[in-house]
Structure formats: structure tokens, C-alpha cells
Amino acid sequence: MWHLPGSDVDLVADHKKLLIYTDGGSRGNPGIAGSGTVVYSTEGETLAEIAYVVGKKATNNVAEYHGMLRGLEAARDLGARELEIRMDSKLVVEQMSGRWKIKHPDMQALALKARDLIKSFDQVTFTWVPRAKNKVADHLSNVAMDAAADGHAPGIVDDGQSAGPSAESLSTPPLSPESSSETSAATPATSAAPVDQASVGSPGHWTGASSPPTRLVLLRHGQTAMSAAKQYSGRSNPALSEIGMAQARAAATALAEGERIDAIVTSPLTRARQTAEEAGRTLGLEVEVLEGLTELDFGMWEGKTFEQAHELDSQLHEEWIGNPTITPPGGEAPQALHKRVRTVRRELVERYPGKTVLVVAHVMPIKSLVRQAIDSGPHVLSRMFLELASISVVEFFPGQARVSSCLRSFNDTAHLKDI
């Protein structure tokens, strides 16, 4: 039987319809992992709080699955017949609702366990909620990760340790299942969700870092009419084309199927904002605009094709291609862009230690962030090529690490193969 946090009284299994909030996290992804689960009656009574140590090396997604499993187990033991599970993991909600495939073997095995448990109920509904509405479960997952860091073996953290702030104190009062306005899908007890790709690991073992890095997932905006025409597009402000919108949607889906994203920031220019907003809708996150991520000002070359810019001053243009320290006529010095983007990076690392931030921007700001990650000079800028809507990943480690930063992946366009 499950117990109220801090109570020795067994719960009476007479709750036929229950509401569960659950979350999971990993410090290092993969790294120390834990999940948190809260079980409510439809009247809002807290029936159980569960902090569960997943292990020393697991991903966010695996931890989220464990939180969901602990909720199913608790509801079964309470004799529930109907159940709504609310999570801020778009990935698990979509996979368990049968809309997304599950490719990763660890999650496939966990999904099979979940389907077996679902057979105990008449109906199970999975609902996505914003992270701000999942604070109690998030707190419990951090309790579990703290316990894991202290040496707690995989399993439930005993009640004295897991008890924490109540739902009321964390401003996340549960709503009845009927009143939820978030996206949801019912999973009958007899249904089987199809069985994602693994989250990217962390190289902390060779950097010497004792804390997880800040990971920046770099997404270039989708196609515009100017990019399709191969024109220099810096401070020009075209919107995404139809293809560009499709690219943004494909990127958003790929991001939702991968690692957990904690925040989204974007350039203020329309093409980047549209791309970021598509990701925000899919991931359930707000989008923050950062002026420092604006594309380079190409000056007199703005709106020109490569050939047209070359005709204006072939010698200068040729020198600029091989030497990005040269400033386009009437435009912005690449070093000035690098300086402002470096400021953005430092602010993000300070604000989001150990978190993953999606950065939606343009060719030159993304190249600048990659240059910072590999600690190189400006000559590397002309030796990188970034596709539209491509994804790259860089990491920045705490100060005590032997290696302060690294490039994890570059110019990934696998999600665009059907466009």
C-alpha cells in the first residue's frame, strides 16, 4: 500500500478516479536521475507523494517514464478505475498516446511495463501541462536526484525524505480531469502505444567537471524567399516561406523527441521568431527574444546574391570570404557580432547552469557560438556550412573543468529528409 507523506496510516483503496502529476530529471543527461510523482483525488486531496531514485546514469526521458510508472503503480494499489496522468514531457505524452514511435530500447521496455499496468484500468488519459503547473512533481524529482547523489540506491526515497512543499505552497493546485484545458489523449486499457532516439550523453567524465554543463541546442531558422534566392539576409526581415514553416515544424518535432529542453531564446528577426515559436508550441515553452542573437549586418551586400556582391568589389568580397575579420562595406564587423554573441552565451550559462537551452538564430551567431565552443579564432567561420533549419549542439562546463566547452554535433538535418 502507498502512504501519505510522513503518515503511518494506509490509504483506503476506494478512489475510483485519480489525477497524477509526474516528472523526471537527469543531472548530466545521462547522469544521476530521479522522478517525482503526486497522486490526487479528483477533489484535490493529496493521496501520495513519491520520490524515486532511477539510478546513477539515466536520461531525462527514462526518468520521466519511471515517474509515470510510479503513478500507474500507485493508482493501481489505490483501486482506481480511471486515471489522468499529467506531465510536462511532450515526448512521453505523445508516445504513450500512440502518436509518436518509441525507438530507444530503454524506453521501449518501460513503455511495455506501462502498457501492462494500463490493463488494470478502464481508461488512462495522458495530458501535457506546462512546466509551471508541475512544480510539486518537479520538486520530488529533485529530492530523488539529491538522494541519488548521496548514495541512495534505485528505489523509492522513504517518506521522511521525500515529503516537501505541498501543492498549495508551490501554487500548482490540481484541477479535476474534466476541467483540464491542456492537450490530452485517452489510452484505453487494451490499447498498445507503438514502441525514440536516445538523448545525447554528457562528456563530463573526460572534462573533469563535477557539475553538468549548460547545453545550447542551436537551431538555424527555416527557409525564406531571400534564402531560397541565395541572397545575403542580415538585418532584412523576411518571414518564413511555406517550406520554411514545414522545416520549423519538422525541427520542433525532432527536438521534442530528443533531449529535454528547459528554455527557448531567439533572435528578434521574424524568421527566427517564427521558427522559435513553432518549437515553443510543440515543447510547451515560452520564447524569450534576445537582441544579441540578431544576424550580422551585411551593409551594401544586403539583399545581393553572392555574384552580385562580388561584382560590387570583387577583391574585397574575395578577401572577406577567406578572412571574416574584414567588415562588409557599410555593415557590421564580424568581431563585433562575436562580442555580442559571447555576451549572450555568458548570460545563458549563468542563468541556466546544468540546463539545456534552445537557441534559435542565424548563420553568423550560430557559427560564433560554435567558435566559442571549440575555442578557435575567426578563421574557422568561413570553414563552416550551416543548412537551413539545421541543429547543432554545444556545451559549456563549470569553471573547474579541465575542458571548458565542446562541440557535440553540427549541422544535423536528418529531420528534414521528408521536406
Topology:
Blueprint: E1 17-27, E2 31-41, E3 46-58, H1 60-77, E4 82-87, H2 90-96, H3 105-118, E5 123-128, H4 135-149, E6 155-156, H5 159-162, E7 184-188, H6 204-207, E8 214-220, H7 225-228, H8 242-257, E9 263-266, H9 270-283, E10 287-289, H10 306-312, H11 314-322, H12 334-351, E11 356-361, H13 363-374, E12 391-396, E13 405-412
Parallel strand pairs: 1-4, 4-5, 8-11, 9-10, 9-11
Antiparallel strand pairs: 1-2, 2-3, 3-6, 5-7, 8-12, 12-13
Helix pairs in contact: 1-3, 8-9, 10-11, 12-13
Here the CATH topology of the largest domain equals: Rossmann fold
Which residue ranges are poorly predicted, with pLDDT under 50 across at least 5 consecutive positions? 1-13, 160-173, 175-183, 190-202
How many distinct helices? 13
Q: What distance lies between the first and last C-alpha atoms, to the nearest angstrom?
A: 51 Å
**CATH architecture annotation name of the largest domain:** 3-Layer(aba) Sandwich
- Whole-number count of domains: 2
CATH homology superfamily name of the largest domain? Phosphoglycerate mutase-like
Indicate the overall shape: elongated
The main sheet orders its strands as 6-3-2-1-4-5-7
Taken as a percent bin, the fraction of beta residues is 15-25%
- Give the radius of gyration: 24 Å
Overall CATH class of the largest domain:
Alpha Beta
Multimeric state: single chain
Percentage of residues assigned to helices: 25-40%
Taking all residues together, what is the mean pLDDT? 85
Report the major sheet: 7 strands, mixed
SSE string, helix = H, strand = E?
A: EEEHEHHEHEHEHEHHEHEHHHEHEE
